[in-house]
Design goal:
- This protein has 103 residues and is an alpha+beta fold.
- Helix content is 42%, strand content 31%.
- It has helices at 7-18, 27-41, 86-101, and strands spanning 2-6, 52-66, 69-80.
- The protein has a three-stranded antiparallel sheet.
- The longest helix has 16 residues, at 86-101.
Length: 103
């Protein structure tokens, strides 16, 4: 399963949980930010996330009005163990996405 997250939201949450303002220009930058967020928020320690193997990050630009006015959007793919029930996967992703909805 994948979700979309704006780069600015990753920056804001890292600033909140780590106290540093990172620059997110690539999927690698976004992955580091997400790793910091997960470590500090203790989401990975919860039961719902124990089957989470990894998170894969890709990027694209979303153009709203013109070629020069765009947002960097990151697709975050959650890779779970094969035996993790769908309900558990959805619960873990919902909790993760709730962090970004608060920003």
């Amino acid at each position: 399963m994948k979700i979309k997250v704006e780069g600015d939201k990753i920056v804001k949450i890292v600033k909140k949980v780590e106290g540093i303002e990172i620059v997110v220009e690539s999927p690698a930058d976004a992955k580091e930010g997400i790793d910091l967020i997960l470590r500090k928020s203790d989401l990975l320690a919860e039961d719902a996330n124990r089957g989470l193997k990894d998170i894969k990050v890709t990027a694209f630009q979303e153009y709203k009005t013109s070629a020069v006015d765009y947002k960097m959007i990151f697709l975050i793919e959650f890779l779970f163990e094969g035996d993790v029930p769908l309900e558990t996967r959805v619960s873990a992703i919902r909790e993760f996405q709730a962090l970004f909805d608060k920003v």
